[in-house]
Design goal:
Strand content: 35-45%
Largest sheet: 5 strands, antiparallel
Distance between the termini: 46 Å
CATH topology of one domain: OB fold (Dihydrolipoamide Acetyltransferase, E2P)
Helix content: 10-25%
Number of helices: 1
Shape: flat
Oligomer: single chain
Radius of gyration: 16 Å
Length: about 80
């Protein structure tokens, strides 16, 4: 049964999961995983090998979903 609680219904509309963009460092085709370096310098292991080495990738919940464009990053301090 669907809830009538407006807050629960609103939370159900929001996309979940952790999202990031990283540069592919290496690919392991045997396991189907890739090592990526995030913009803050942290290296992670993600599932998926569809993005080429030295290309940027979108990562959602540890899964590479698509290639990301190579756009410049700007940090603004307020």
């Amino acid at each position: 049964m669907a809830t009538v609680n407006p807050w629960k219904r609103f939370i159900g509309l929001l996309p979940g999961g952790e999202r990031a963009v990283g540069r592919v460092i290496s690919i392991d085709p045997a396991t189907g995983t890739s090592y990526l370096e995030l913009r803050n310098g942290v290296q992670i292991l993600a599932r998926g090998s569809s993005v080429a080495v030295n290309s940027n990738a979108f990562i959602v919940d540890g899964l590479i979903i698509a290639e990301a464009p190579g756009l410049p990053q700007f940090d603004v301090e307020v």
